[in-house]
Design goal:
With about 250 residues, the protein is α/β, with parallel strands linked by helices. The chain has a single domain (about 10-240), classed as NAD(P)-binding Rossmann-like Domain (Rossmann fold), CATH 3.40.50. Helix content is about 45%, strand content about 15%. The chain has helices spanning about 15-30, 40-55, 70-80, 105-135, 145-150, 155-175, 190-195, 200-205, 215-230; strands spanning about 10, 30-35, 55-60, 85-90, 135-140, 180-185, 240. Helix 3 (about 70-80) packs parallel to helix 4 and helix 4 packs parallel to helix 6. The longest helix is centred in the middle third of the chain and has 29 residues, at about 105-135. The radius of gyration is 17 Å and the shape is globular. Bound molecules: nicotinamide-adenine-dinucleotide. Nicotinamide-adenine-dinucleotide binds near residues 15, 17, 18, 189 and 193.
Length: about 250
């Protein structure tokens, strides 16, 4: 596995779940990691403490990525603190599930603003830094439901599909500057987001997984570390499903 020594990585929504695992894995490979959180200061500090105990380097950065002003300032703060920005992982995300006819404007807006507009704003700010450096890797955490759709998740699936369009468009724009942009589409990963689901929904989800098990946050983190590394230097504009065989055709 190629080293990420001295690379600076920003991971949004990194106080728990997949984001925290990504932060720990990138730090373990030598990256200096900016652990972004919106409200969970203690949890974010615990992620940083764990990274430092393991011999890595990390720092917390508070920002609500659904607010374009805060998201832009976050990228500027991380770049100013570490002097560069090599890796961005747009991981922050929320769900507000409900059937279409009962979905409120607020639930639509909140999910699109956090999951899609947040990734757009962070990517726009990071692209300016990375284009100047003529290097960088942006990784958007989409979802298998962005590929397949999902009843009860019109807002979330639309936002996650939007992230794939964002990934492919920006990959085309930035390729000539050696900035790579890829997406990961996780399947069913065991985190706080999915443990809220009922046993019946979990059982039904498992039935769609060819490998017959749920994924762990570390499974996504390993894919992120690969896409962030020089081993993936010829990969851009791709969507990598990490789903135990939910979506392959
Ligand atoms: P999670 O709810 O445990 O973590 C999401 C993180 O995002 C939390 O730390 C939360 O505080 C943060 N966040 C939310 N809104 C934010 C904001 N406005 N600004 C900054 N941070 C914010 O969920 P998770 O399962 O770890 O999911 C991480 C990402 O992976 C999400 O984008 C999610 O949609 C995606 N994903 C998860 C699964 C799964 O099965 N768990 C599957 C596909 C995709």
């Amino acid at each position: 596995m190629s080293s990420l020594e001295s690379r600076v990585a920003l991971v949004t929504g990194a106080s728990r779940g997949i984001g925290a695992a990504v932060a720990r894995t990138l730090a373990a490979r030598g990256a200096l990691v900016a652990v972004n959180y919106a409200g969970s200061a203690d949890a974010a500090a615990a992620v940083v403490a764990g990274i430092e105990e393991a011999g890595g380097t990390a720092a917390v950065f508070q920002a609500d990525v659904s607010d374009p002003v805060q998201a832009t300032a976050l990228v500027e703060a991380v770049t100013a603190r570490f002097g560069r920005l090599d890796i961005v992982v747009n991981n922050a995300g929320i769900t507000r599930d409900g059937l279409l006819v009962r979905m409120s404007d607020e639930d639509w807006d909140a999910v699109v603003r956090t999951n899609l507009t947040g990734a757009f704003t962070i990517t726009r700010a990071a692209a300016k830094v990375m284009m100047r450096a003529r290097a960088g890797s942006i990784i958007n955490i989409s979802s298998v439901v962005g590929l397949t759709g999902n009843a009860g998740q019109a807002n979330y699936a639309a936002a996650k599909a939007g992230m794939i369009g964002l990934t492919r468009s920006v990959a085309r724009e930035l390729a000539s500057r050696s900035v790579r942009v890829n997406a990961i589409a996780p399947g069913f990963i065991e985190t706080d987001m999915t443990c809220e689901l009922s046993p019946a929904v979990r059982e039904a989800a498992l039935g769609q997984v060819a490998m017959g098990t749920f994924g762990q946050p570390e499974d996504i983190a390993a894919a992120v570390a690969f896409l962030a590394s020089d081993e993936a230097r010829y990969i851009t504009g791709q969507v990598l499903a990490v789903d135990g065989g939910m979506t392959f055709v």
